[in-house]
Amino acid sequence: MPVPMPEIVTKPRTKTKPQIERPKLYKVILLNDDFTPREFVVTVLKGEFKLSEDQARRVMITAHQRGVCVVAVFTRDVAETKATRATDAGKAKGYPLMFTTEPEE
Ligand code: TYC
């Protein structure tokens, strides 16, 4: 009678990729300009980004003094939609107010 060989079970050597990946996040950036009234910038920041009065003032003043300020981070679609809506709110009043987006490192 032949003796049966013991079965050798080995783990696969390849690593499988985790199935859930964190979505990449995008910053919404507020750019300073010389024309948009401060109060209007604050109003847009509160309305579109749900910042408190205090947060909105700090973000506005930072952009005013340094040229740019990060408003918040979102997934790509949300960041782009909010940046466009906020920029359009300025445009509707004839202001050059500008929001852009950029990927986080
Ligand atoms: N610099 C503008 C002014 O003096 C105010 C302002 C602040 C405009 C921040 C845009 O992102 C901005 N009226």
Overview of this protein structure:
This protein is of the alpha+beta class and 105 residues long. It has a domain at 36-103: Ribosomal Protein L30, Chain: A, CATH 3.30.1390.10. It has helices at 38-49, 53-66, 76-92; strands spanning 25-31, 68-75, 98-103. The protein has a 3-stranded antiparallel β-sheet with strand order 2-1-3. The longest helix is centred in the C-terminal third of the chain and has 17 residues, at 76-92. The radius of gyration is 25 Å and the shape is rod-shaped. The chain binds L-tyrosinamide. L-tyrosinamide binds at residues 30-34, 36-38, 41, 60, 63-64, 97.
How many individual β-strands?
3
Q: CATH superfamily membership of the domain at 36-103, which one? A: Ribosomal protein L7/L12, C-terminal domain/Adaptor protein ClpS
Radius of gyration: 25 Å
* First-last Cα distance: 66 Å
Q: What class, by secondary structure content? A: alpha+beta
Mean pLDDT score = 93
Low-pLDDT stretches are none
User: Strands of the largest sheet, in order across it?
Assistant: 2-1-3
Give the biggest sheet: 3 strands, antiparallel
- How much helicity do the residues have? 40-55%
List SSEs in N-to-C order. EHHEHE
| Global outline | rod-shaped
